[in-house]
Amino acid sequence: MDLGKCISDATQEIFQSMLMCEAHPSAPLATRSNKFTDSVSGLVGLAGNYRGMLAIHVPNDVAMAITSKFLFMDVEEINDDVKDAIGELANMLAGSVKSMLTETGTGLKLAIPSAISGAEYEVECLSDGDGVIVPFCIEEGAFLVECYLQNS
């Protein structure tokens, strides 16, 4: 299983179908930073045959642009709408990755998505297991999608 390809395919498909924009992937990052500044992160836990986490980390200005596309309205501040939109985006990405990982869609459960934002925060995740962080670029800027999994 190529987790990077799963993330890349799922992200491109969701951005095309839900936001009518192209998300261009870059090569996966070699190292992970767990510190984020002026950003919004959507997180979804995974449990079952695998356990882990899928997250999308989006700078504030890009998060507001994505939310504007999602809700068909101008968004000018980080608020609950933005956190909900980024959390839902993480949920859709996790759902796509789940269906790619499990042919029947069973054996893997998704937690309720959550989102955090702030001037500065950290996101810790599994250190042992397979993981990938894929940078993407849309017209409005760049963001990261990461997924860490280990067999249960």
Question: How would you describe this structure in keywords?
Answer:
single chain; 152 residues; alpha+beta; Chemotaxis protein chec; seven-stranded antiparallel sheet; 3 helices; globular; CheX-like; Chemotaxis protein CheX; CheC-like_sf; CheX-like_dom
Question: What would you note in describing this structure?
Answer:
The chain has a single domain, classed as CheC-like (Chemotaxis protein chec, 3-Layer(aba) Sandwich). The mean pLDDT is 91. The two termini are 16 Å apart. With 152 residues, it is of the alpha+beta class. Strands 1, 2, 3, 4, 5, 6 and 7 form a seven-stranded antiparallel β-sheet that branches. It has helices at residues 3-19, 60-71, 80-101; strands spanning 24-25, 35-48, 50-59, 108-110, 114-122, 130-138, 141-151. It contains three helices and seven strands. Pfam families: CheX (PF13690). Keywords: Chemotaxis. Residues 40-136 form the Chemotaxis phosphatase CheX-like domain.
CATH class: Alpha Beta
Alpha plus pi helix count: 3
Question: SS-based structural class?
Answer: alpha+beta
Distance between the termini: 16 Å
Overall structural domain count? 1
Q: What's the CATH topology name?
A: Chemotaxis protein chec
Radius of gyration: 14 Å
Give the name of the CATH superfamily: CheC-like
Unreliable spans: none
Q: What is the helix/strand order?
A: HEEEHHEEEE
Give the helix proportion (percent range).
Answer: 25-40%
Could you give a short account of the major beta sheet? 7 strands, antiparallel
Shape descriptor: globular
**What percentage of amino acids are in beta strands?**
35-45%
